[in-house]
User: Fold this.
Amino acid sequence: MKPDLKVKIGSLTLKNPVITASGTFGYGEEFHESFYDIAKLGAVVTKGISLKPRAGNEMPRVIETASGMLNAIGLANVGLDAFLSDKLPYLARTGAVVIANILGSTVEEYAEVARRLDSAEGVMALEQNISCPNVKCGGLQFGIDPESAAVAVRAVRKAFSRTLIVKLSPQASSIPAMARACEEAGADAISLINTIPAMAIDVRTKKPVLANVTGGLSGPAIKPVALRMVYEAAGAVKIPIIGIGGIMNAADAVEFMLAGASAIQIGTANFVRPMAAMEIIEGIEVYCRENSISRVGELTGALEVRS
Amino acid sequence: MKPDLKVKIGSLTLKNPVITASGTFGYGEEFHESFYDIAKLGAVVTKGISLKPRAGNEMPRVIETASGMLNAIGLANVGLDAFLSDKLPYLARTGAVVIANILGSTVEEYAEVARRLDSAEGVMALEQNISCPNVKCGGLQFGIDPESAAVAVRAVRKAFSRTLIVKLSPQASSIPAMARACEEAGADAISLINTIPAMAIDVRTKKPVLANVTGGLSGPAIKPVALRMVYEAAGAVKIPIIGIGGIMNAADAVEFMLAGASAIQIGTANFVRPMAAMEIIEGIEVYCRENSISRVGELTGALEVRS
Amino acid sequence: MNDCATKIELIEALSNDAYRIRFAVDWKAFDPGQFVMMGIPGNVVFLRRPFGIARFSNGVAEICCKVVGRGTRALSDAKVGTRIDVLGPCGRGFRFPQKEEPAILVAGGYGIGPIFGLCEALLAQGRRCILYYGARETSHLLYLDELAKIGANVKCSTEDGSHGARGMIAELLEKDLDNIEKPSLFACGPHGLSKAVAEISRRRGVPAQVSMESYMACGIGVCLGCACKDADGNFVRTCREGPVFDVRELQWDSSPL
Amino acid sequence: MNDCATKIELIEALSNDAYRIRFAVDWKAFDPGQFVMMGIPGNVVFLRRPFGIARFSNGVAEICCKVVGRGTRALSDAKVGTRIDVLGPCGRGFRFPQKEEPAILVAGGYGIGPIFGLCEALLAQGRRCILYYGARETSHLLYLDELAKIGANVKCSTEDGSHGARGMIAELLEKDLDNIEKPSLFACGPHGLSKAVAEISRRRGVPAQVSMESYMACGIGVCLGCACKDADGNFVRTCREGPVFDVRELQWDSSPL
Ligand SMILES: Cc1cc2nc3c(=O)[nH]c(=O)nc-3n(C[C@H](O)[C@H](O)[C@H](O)COP(=O)(O)OP(=O)(O)OC[C@H]3O[C@@H](n4cnc5c(N)ncnc54)[C@H](O)[C@@H]3O)c2cc1C
Ligand SMILES: Cc1cc2nc3c(=O)[nH]c(=O)nc-3n(C[C@H](O)[C@H](O)[C@H](O)COP(=O)(O)OP(=O)(O)OC[C@H]3O[C@@H](n4cnc5c(N)ncnc54)[C@H](O)[C@@H]3O)c2cc1C
Ligand SMILES: Cc1cc2nc3c(=O)[nH]c(=O)nc-3n(C[C@H](O)[C@H](O)[C@H](O)COP(=O)(O)O)c2cc1C
Ligand SMILES: Cc1cc2nc3c(=O)[nH]c(=O)nc-3n(C[C@H](O)[C@H](O)[C@H](O)COP(=O)(O)O)c2cc1C
Ligand code: FES
Ligand code: FES
Assistant:
């Protein structure tokens, strides 16, 4: 029997728990044109959208590390207007479930972007990025202090009527406190983790490799940290958790679900294997079949912890 | 010309900047007997010492991850009395510079251990571990809150007259704030990072791999994060920084020094290549010669950052 | 563009640090200047590595890989039969010149890969072309046999003068350009060469296209890691809007990778 | 104990998932039951992997590696000539029995490795010994030829009865023990076998040593990752105080790895 892969995030029902992560999938065009029908995904999260376009950081912006990579793209994006006029219509036509990732350097910017996306057809949910580790002026305080996070989330909650996901920074010293603050402020779901601020140095030139000096670490290297944070978040709140961080295959995805995630996001894996998300959907289905799981939701939080 | 590898940490002069990290070198016996004269090291940091012996966590306690490993040893150690009677005399006989890593679940325990080590001959410095990510009851609050850290550091500072190093947790949401708090409280140096709390799950058994559920991530996977934190700490305080995290070879060590470390610690690498520390001392010397650096201290903070 | 799981069919040293590598792919054609993202065998590196497509015929593609680090080392050490993932053809290749204009190809080092592909395609169409090809020393001049076989008109230079003219290939090119009518330039090589070609193009008002390099994470336009600055100072993606750009599209004062 | 950079000299399949691997080392002797920490070729795993020493002569050591995961896969796929780091000999091996007592060796699966080493050493000293050797099926019984060659007295069992007695080796052993005077037991195999031997030892009051397994990070006693519980409930290091323990030293009710 085919297992039921559907999952619910807020008022949104996804056909499967596999979502592509912000900043690793553009606005969906490249994948839809060259690799697969992106409507087959649980959902697509867009590159982070700000009120005004952002050029991003200077080069180099990316560098490989042990089992991972650093990026300091600088939240480059086309800006809200261009997203609405150029990117969203394409996405909408594909039939994909679209989650708009939004960023802001002020509460007002978050609220304004959210308000305008509320009236945009085709945006089924928001993912509010409160991390922004690469942008010096932006967002950092929201990501590490539960009270500031709550203020930002409340503002977006007021401005947006559909599903609101808040994406946490791994820099928060207490993930449970942060998750609870966001839940209380009205988030429908929590996604985590964003990249971990990190750095690489070239001993030949004695310079930082990235023009921005620091960048965000992603990939398998961070998976164990992400898994722990998902487990902590799931234990702290009632709303669904979306697990992110170093997921390369179906086993990784299942680990996050066992730890408490209702859905998962595929980030860096999209770069290494463009078909990764499709392979993972299939792999989760196989795992369910082999383990006699009829609804994928049964996996969520099914970790057996001796106590 | 042979470069001068000596470095100063507080009132302590080390013959080179390479130190073996707490928990990865026992109390020096195994290495000294089978691999090399441990007096050749800059210093040896002991396994964390508590007032009473600790048995540690149940099995399994370790598991490999992508470019790293998790451990949940649970700060198992022989306890202060046995350290003083059984372990320290051996260490002292080797002629190694001994840094005693200490832990405590209360300010009083820290102070008591420090006081007794102050009168112990052969302990040249303390490294106060304020992280303790594996022990449920112990230490976590010291590691993430600058004020509690300062209280614990002040107590140890009063009790110990020689060099005091404070070892930071990567969970602190602001490393600069934490480093400054420790400096103000009287630390002679800051070492970082301790392992990052993390987790592994076995999808076959649906159980956490570690009996303790979570453990600490170490190894190359965390190097970029450690490097960033060392860079931040070095920018925040005047006291020397000791860099730790995923150092596997001399190039890694030099990266940490460029980022601002005066010395570095070798942890997990000791498991993968027992001769790692010796190879790294040699490699740093080669790097200095090839780059016409006469004193290794010139590397500290020599990173060229465009501004 | 697609990602195919294939196998190395041939691997051959071209010099002490450059290798010809062939593998079957399931695409049907490519534009010279396009590239592939190669999965590196073993587990030594995490991301894929970009390589210009040097040749493609009968379903078999060829790259020329120069060993510069761990990934290129591991790829070059692989054996025939090793499984590899190849994503391609990626990016935008060279736009062909107007029929009547002579194509002046310029290659530096392993930049000969894509330029060989372009040369072969132009000659197959009976177009006029001259290839200026420079390297540090004779042993670094690759594909000379194949170039002779396809009847290419090749002018070489080496920095040590051991083969062809002594000096940089851009200098040799610049000297000859006075005698060529309506030339259009097509270059692939180190950043310095691209810059020199851009400068020649500007000074002489001759059209020029260059293939640019950038550190790439995805190669398909989604990570924004490979951006370079266009003439207006905006970022464009080397992997998508490039790697081949008209020199007028780009800003040339900004620092290279 | 030391760490030597060496090369694989021989690699040979013993069954569909077990391999004999030989490499030169620069130590001079080992105690049966001791193990090596093998660096795994390629970059597929991070930590080393422990393997019991099956044989050592003329400076060449042999292990028997059963493929169970990525590290053992990569090691078994390596070619002759592949460079590997070998740290050893590690840990405490079997303590030899009193001269007069017959040594009863018990091996399960790839546990034959260390037991073969012990058997060879005992026979070389002209000691009496009988080897009880069990596996799932015939093809999983390894080293039978070599055992015959050294003149070992081997009693086999397989779970499917395809070779020797049908059933678990501990059952066969228990039946025979009545007829052996002053036996002392030496076992290496899965945790279940060790437990069964400990139980037999306790019930019959015969001395027994078992080689234990534990996930190991360092293999040299410094990480405390491999602890197991001794009879008093204290942790002891499998890699240092073990891997061979007298069964009375350990606690047997605690859950296995
Ligand atoms: C469009 C394009 C086409 C290319 N075509 C060829 C070709 O035909 N033949 C060829 O030999 N090489 C080509 N290169 C360069 C080749 O991709 C790099 O040499 C290779 O990625 C280095 O990998 P590594 O692991 O050996 O080096 P590393 O050890 O990672 O680093 C060594 C050096 O290579 C640079 N580098 C590393 N990774 C990349 C990357 N993903 N993209 C760009 N630079 C990188 C680093 O900045 C560093 O300076 C091309 C690059 C691009 C962008
Ligand atoms: C003292 C000792 C002697 C051993 N002797 C032999 C031998 O002679 N021949 C042989 O084939 N095997 C032996 N083993 C077991 C062997 O070490 C493991 O099978 C091997 O480490 C698995 O590595 P992997 O990467 O293939 O498996 P993984 O993919 O890492 O995991 C597969 C399974 O192996 C277990 N495992 C993984 N790593 C270790 C480790 N470092 N230590 C113990 N268990 C581990 C895991 O818990 C898991 O269940 C011995 C183990 C010990 C402790
Ligand atoms: C190149 C790159 C760009 C990213 N851009 C964004 C972004 O704009 N907004 C955001 O919330 N997260 C962004 N992320 C973070 C990812 O969405 C994801 O949280 C992180 O990479 C961890 O997952 P992974 O290990 O699977 O990549 C970016 C990640 C990468 C690698
Ligand atoms: C098995 C193990 C045990 C450790 N025990 C301690 C400890 O007792 N006290 C302490 O301060 N740090 C301890 N650490 C942390 C290390 O000292 C070091 O900070 C960390 O492993 C990061 O460095 P690495 O990546 O080089 O291993 C331990 C690490 C490992 C792997
Ligand atoms: S390499 Fe990712 S956008 Fe070009
Ligand atoms: S494996 Fe490290 S102490 Fe035994």
